[in-house]
Write a structure and sequence with these properties.
Residues about 100-130 have low confidence and may be disordered. The chain is elongated and about 85 Å long. The chain has one domain. By secondary structure, the chain is an alpha+beta fold. β2 (about 115) and β3 form a beta hairpin. The chain has helices spanning about 1-60, 70-75; strands at about 90-95, 115, 120, 135-140, 150-155, 160-165, 170, 175-180, 190.
């Protein structure tokens, strides 16, 4: 009987060892799968904000929302979506840059709104509101300190490296979702608190 007990203990130890190895293999795979699903959710939610801003533009040509609540009030967005990548769920905002005119384009900012045709904004230079060449990224908490904020999109506050490469970018804080985006060209990014260049 004692001999049998020894075999049982050995068998249990072997089973625990095999299960531990299985978990060591399964956990990273499971974490990767969860991260991939969150990336898909980030893309979906980001595009929801872009579509909401497009609808806002159709209702109020030439105007941009000053906060997210305005999108819900105007029935452009059914509910506010959280950033799935940041722990607090707060997005960074992509705002229309209000700095000096770019020397490359020599166009005043009002020309970047595009020309409306048949309820759609005409595409110029690849963007829906003209070629948006410079954006301001600001945390939601800083919105009240910005004069006349013009929200054109969102970006994750997380600087974690991504699994998926989205528009040639490999960290979530570079996955921009904004109205007037040219997928082939990353705009110049000015971060809140950083001085804008001429």
């Amino acid at each position: 009987m004692k001999k049998t007990d020894g075999y049982t203990i050995l068998l249990l130890m072997f089973a625990v060892f095999v299960m531990s190895i299985g978990l060591m293999i399964a956990v990273p795979v499971w974490q990767t799968q969860i991260q991939r699903e969150k990336e898909e959710e980030l893309i979906f939610r980001g595009k929801q904000y872009v579509e909401a801003i497009r609808l806002f533009q159709r209702k109020k040509p030439g105007a941009f929302p000053k906060d997210f609540e305005e999108l819900v009030e105007e029935k452009c967005l059914r509910k506010l979506f959280e950033d799935p990548m940041s722990p607090d769920g707060k997005w960074n905002l992509v705002l229309m840059s209000q700095g000096p005119v770019s020397r490359r384009t020599r166009q005043p900012r009002r020309a970047s709104r595009g020309t409306r045709t048949g309820g759609q904004t005409a595409r110029t230079g690849g963007g829906g509101i003209g070629a948006v060449q410079r954006v301001l990224i600001a945390p939601q908490a800083a919105l009240s300190a910005i004069d006349n904020p013009q929200i054109i999109g969102v970006v994750s506050a997380s600087n974690q490296e991504s699994i998926k490469i989205y528009y040639n970018q490999q960290s979530y804080d570079k996955w921009l979702f904004f109205y007037g985006q040219d997928p082939a060209k990353m705009p110049e990014i000015i971060y809140y608190g950083q001085k804008e260049k001429d």
